Amino acid sequence: MTQTVQHHKxxxxxxxxxxxxxxxxxxxxxxxxxxxxLVVSGIFIFAITKLNPIQVYEAIFDGAFGTNRxxxxxxxxxxxxxxxxxxxxxxxKMKFWNIGAEGQILIGGVVTAGIMRAWGGDLSTPALLAVxxxxxxxxxxxxxxxxxxxxxxxxxxxxxxxxxxNYVAIQITSYCVALWENPVGSNSVGIINQMTAYGHFxxxxxxxxxxxxxxxxILAVGMYIYLKYSKQGYEISVVGDSENTARYAGINxxxxxxxxxxxxxxxxxxxxxxxxxxxxxxxxxxTAGGRGFTAIIVAWLAQFNTFVMILISFLLVFLxxxxxxxxxxxxxxxxxxxxxxxxxxxxxLSSEFFINYRVIVRGGKEAKGK
Amino acid sequence: MENTYAIQMKHxxxxxxxxxxxxxxxxxxxxxxxxxxxxxxxxxKTTLMNMLxxxxxPDEGEILVGGNPVTIASPxxxxxCGIGMIHQHFKLVDIFTxxxxxxxxxxxxxxxDLKAAAARITEICQKYGFVIxxxxxxxxMSVSEKQTVEIVKVLYRGxxxxxxxxxxxxLTPQETDRLFDVMRNMKADGKAMVIITHKLNEVMxxxxxVAVLRKGRYIGDVATRDTNPQKLTDMMVGHAVTLNIDRxxxxxxxxxxxxxxxxxxxxxxxxALDHVSFQAFGGEILGIAGISGSGQKELLESIAGLRATExxxxxxxxxxxxxxxxxxxxxxxxxxxxELLGKTPRQIHSIGVSMAFVPEDRLGMGLVGSMGMTxxxxxxxxxxxxxxxxxxKSPRALAEQVKAELDVLTPSLNTPVRRLSGGNVxxxxxxxxxxxxxxxxxTAYAVRGLDINTSYTIYNLLTAEKCKGVAVLYVxxxxxxxxxxxxxxxxxxxxxxxxxxxxxxTTKEEVGLLMTRFRKEAAQA
Lengths: 370, 525
Known about the structure:
The complex is a heterodimer.
Chain A: E1 13-17, H1 23-49, H2 53-65, H3 68-93, H4 101-119, H5 125-154, H6 158-179, H7 210-229, H8 231-241, H9 243-248, H10 253-280, H11 291-301, H12 306-329, H13 334-356, E2 357-361, H14 365-369
Antiparallel strand pairs in A: 1-2
Helix pairs in contact in A: 1-13, 2-3, 2-12, 3-7, 3-8, 3-10, 3-11, 3-12, 4-5, 4-6, 4-10, 5-6, 5-10, 7-8, 8-10, 11-12, 12-13
Chain B: E1 5-16, E2 19-30, E3 33-38, H1 45-52, E4 60-65, E5 68-70, H2 75-80, E6 83-86, H3 98-103, H4 114-128, H5 143-156, E7 161-165, H6 173-188, E8 192-196, H7 200-206, E9 209-214, E10 217-223, H8 229-237, E11 255-265, E12 271-281, E13 284-289, H9 296-303, E14 314-317, E15 338-339, H10 345-351, E16 353-357, H11 373-377, H12 393-406, H13 422-435, E17 440-444, H14 452-467, E18 471-475, H15 479-485, E19 488-493, E20 496-502, H16 508-515, H17 520-524
Parallel strand pairs in B: 3-8, 3-9, 6-7, 7-8, 13-18, 13-19, 16-17, 17-18
Antiparallel strand pairs in B: 1-2, 1-4, 4-5, 9-10, 11-12, 11-14, 14-15, 19-20
Helix pairs in contact in B: 8-16, 12-13, 13-14
């Protein structure tokens, strides 16, 4: 005489974790998310500005790839974002929340600018580039290792620590900008070695930003191999999944933490070098420009696969460049375009939810089938 | 007429997948009575009580509170019915005071008045004899004080049915006595209480009635004054079941592991292991029995080098003699015995000491959930080979082999093991450890949650290892299995060795009594 319990109400919506999802289906969800975001943005554009959304999208594309120059700017910025994302990948794969890329980039940029000012002309440009590259790498490495050591030895919170390191780097940069002011009173450093171009990236393949592309792509491929096929990359995955298992496997968790952050910081420092020597040829507190944070999205969305990161970096920069274009073309301010970027990112990020979970509606087909 | 039943559970069944945690259980809880819920690990005590507390929802059956059928779908529903559960693991906010923790989550209208709350807390404390300072922060409290806060929290919410899940596990004997005094005061006040415990002396001491569960089934209940520890043990463990596990005797057996005065502290400073000494021999399966949390985990982890030990502890490893078949497979060590404590887990593993620990969540330690079988196979061996890159060829071959030999069901070798069913996850883990050709193989709960056929596969694998001359340490839950699989059984109780018995001649009752620290002589006396 088994009685079932009465008055058992099933909730209206239930969220169930998926066991797994076929790859094509996952991509279909992602593409659907992008399309949905374009529709929502279109409705938004029309509601606020009464502009034809198609025209606005055309303008976005025009802004990113309309001219040869614009295309190269898009490539250049995407490479920067990718470089930082590549730097962050090992740290986040280890579940080390390195939000200190801003500081690591800045410190790499500051030493690059300093060396460029001090030794421009004393050393040949290739030697100068090598010195700047190595020193920026070491400084970024230091900026990454300090919080890692504190985390490994005293278990401090790496999120706060790396964030605070950003402020230290920003203050050092402010100090140097004031020190190197040129011309005096401009409150900026100006283009360093503007006339001589000492320590600036040379043209490669006839392109001003050719060297940026080559360097970053080497890093991206290298990081892909490192994470996927190297013993150290394997250790990072184990530590990121479970520290207990890592200890059980005889992995020295402290050592791996410090080593991984050294690599992560070094690449971010190198990104600072590429930015200063290869792009802006100047230094300011805006040199990192929030890309240390944006790159976190790049790394996570790509699930640390550096080849997917290339796509995502391009998508983000494409939107940014397009935003600038629609701001000027339609007399909108920057904020309108930022909103569009925000909507698109929101949709992409939330599509991951639908890839990992299913929603079951009460009374729906699935609920009854259960 | 007043209904004396606080709660009646009728024909309650709860399943987790294929595992039946509670099978058609009917249980009555009376007002003004302390009921002990007794049973071995995994007998379904906590699951049953969690259904009263709103943590789980029964699949079948009915719950009546005060004679009326109710639906308890959430902890809030439980409180509305006057049911409060004090869990084994405290759920308190460390940086809050006792009073803040107690009022947390209460939806009372108006402003939060901590002073009034403190006054009411003091009142409750005086009524039942608790000692607690409402303004003390939780992080400054001892374990016993935290438990008091948990109990007061429940009383503050007006609960008159209290469920205590192994409340004495974390208490000293004096604190236990104090808790029992409070429980008797609450009983006198007409509250209904359920205490889940393994300790028979406490059952005899505090309860009025004992209900026994075994393997998810309700065995029966007896008035405490009509019973004794011996009878309760019989009810708890049941009669020995014959399993027909093949158990060859290996001769000669060589001393492999000598554990001397092994003492380990928990992070709280409590002794998890207290001067544990024993010997393990190659060619034998040494069973380790005990109520869960008696120090099994700490014992294996200490030997594997994963846990800090107190000074004076020794674990001496004696390598296989050159004429043994398993000799020469590992890093050579001192023939007269080598101390393992102080070595890194990697060094210990390279000597040939393997551990396959299957924790409650199965993945917490030993396997990387996000990786597939191949990558998990190389967890301890990935360093092999020259150069910075991984060699995935031999792990893949090993994965194929384990998959074939143990019938692991997986869509592919690269499917994250997290997605596999529990039994398959265990096969991957145990298969990998055996594949290391260990000279000491430690397994804990290797067959937890496995179906009967797979369990036998694992028993046979362990026996095969034993026949090769490996010293097998088998931490198990099921006494029937321990009695038929092992050569000797070491019984742990509260971090101490309460006895080592010959598995071929001992009885279930003897082991059961050792597990609850009632030695045979004491029980007969």
